[in-house]
Amino acid sequence: MPWELSVALRYLTARRKQAFISLISGVAVVGVAVGVMAVLIALGLMTGLQSEIRRKILGSTAHISIFQGRGDPFANYEEVVNTVRSLPGVAGAAPAVYGKALLTSTSGSAVATLKGIVPREEATVTEVMTQLREGEVEPLEHPGEGPTPVLLGHVLADTLNVGVGDVLTVTSPKGRLSPVGILPRVTRVRVAGTVDAGLYEFNSSWVYMPLEAAQRLFEQRGQATLVEVRLDDMFAVREEAAAILETLGHGYLTTDWIQMNGSLFSALWIEKMAIGITIGLIVVVAALNIVATLVLMVMEKHKDIAILVSMGASRGAITRIFMLQGSIIGAVGTAVGGAVGWGACEVLDRYKLIRIPEDVYQIAAVPFRLLPGDAAVVIVSALLVCFVATLHPARVASRVDPAEALRYE
Amino acid sequence: MSAPPPSSTPPLLAARGIVKGYRTAAGVVSVLQGVDLEVAEGEMVAITGASGVGKSTLLHVLGTLDRPDAGSLWVAGEDVLALSEPRRCDFRNRTLGFVFQFHHLLPEFSALENVAMPLLLARRGRDEAHGAARVLLEQLGLGERADHRPGTLSGGEQQRVAVARALAMSPRAVLADEPTGNLDQATGQKLHELLRRLAGERRLSVVVVTHNEQLARGCDRVLHLEGGRLAAV
After folding, report:
1. Which of A99, A122, A249, B159 is the most core-located residue (most Cβ within 10 A)?
2. What ipTM does the predicted assembly reach?
3. In this complex, which of A1, A3, A11 lies closest to B121 when CB atoms are compared?
4. B227: in domain
5. What Å distances lie between residue B184 and A350, B45, B157, B215, CA to CA?
């Protein structure tokens, strides 16, 4: 062990006459630990929320959507689905028909987004088929006679005050031309099940129905509004979209989940950074404690510094002693804060300790997910801030004039 | 760079025309006004003078802890004022030992660790440094007290630890500032005899600043500092 480190350690661990210095050394360590812990927990929370929101959005929407260039529905969707499915990196593809319609029950009405799906194929693109709250998907596979079976977001079902087996009226604005004008298309549907997608937007306004029924309702017989694609790697949307467009040739457009939710994720990212920086200021305040501790230590050790210089210690060596002291305070604080912060994230996430109203926040418990990269940035930054805090006191220590310190004994 | 002092047997320590002053609110106070001093190898020189006359300042200049405003200083054939800061520190570590009136041991370290410190500064291994320090402490009759902190040692013991520390690197010269000033007469006498013996055994040049006329007379030479200059007594 270099002698500078042994002196630094001894100064930090020795009982001192000035208990105040020991106290503020302790406060400095605790300050750094609290700061690091707080930043890690905050980042864990923000990342957890971001991941959860992303998971829920992607549970109900595809990674990439393919449109016809002019926005018209396309008839060759089966060919597109088969072509896209054969591409590497594509986990699944399915056609969908989208439209808006008015749903009316005996006790209410609501405008909803209707999505026509092929349930078996939809399962390869979204998780809607596994998000059933009540009822079953099977009727959508084999509609049979009678009203068309549909799946409703459970909030929408509550709004319309309907349950499994109830019948609704669907009024589509895409109607038939008649001598008295355009007549809306009206059809009857039966609730086959309700869905909990995890996000209010989907739960309150989405309806899933068989593809053929949606095609009829929206006057798109034999056509699909778009083809939805799920990827093996959801972050590879740009490369995969380029590959898809290249394979399909001219006349197609794509959009992806990042583009569609860009402003949301951008806001979440900015919020994460703002919270991280704001809470990170605790570390800066703790670093000021390090400055105070070291300045007081230099004042207390004036004579020791002079003695070490008389033994041949250079200015550099004296600088190193006090830099090491501050860095040890920073390292211990960061290590403790890092361990407690990581542990807190694990415990809070595993045991779902922070519960929140699900109907308001769409999640039952606050999720925590600490990314190794985030933790590394926090730890390195904390160590750096603590190290920078040592520079001034260490420089003051190195400038102690030994002759003067020894003269006024 | 000034030339070394011409001599058939060059002195271990040679100071020429040392001038040193301090700025105060009232102006510059000139403490040393052209001090000349030569100390031969193995010689023990006492510097006496009234309080505040600049004895400690001279000692600090001789020990390279303070820089003179003018003059030259050669120690062990080295123009120490021309050395860079790191080399001067290294030179101080290898060539000079200090003993202070208030011993100035590092309170957080044991007697053994205090004596080993100059060796550790010279990047010697811990075992080697502690081994050498233990031998020195035993030679000075402090073997039993090696693991004690300075606060638990008597004044005489503390000063002997300080002497052991000054000798740890086997220096060529020891500079002692009132080494007996804080000790009773008997203990002070013993310490003086110890320094005297070590100077003889190790061919050590010793410069002692003291108020004690009796101890000063026991040195090879006594110089009196007055009016910023040294004069033989």
Report:
1. B159
2. 0.90
3. A3
4. yes
5. 71, 22, 12, 13
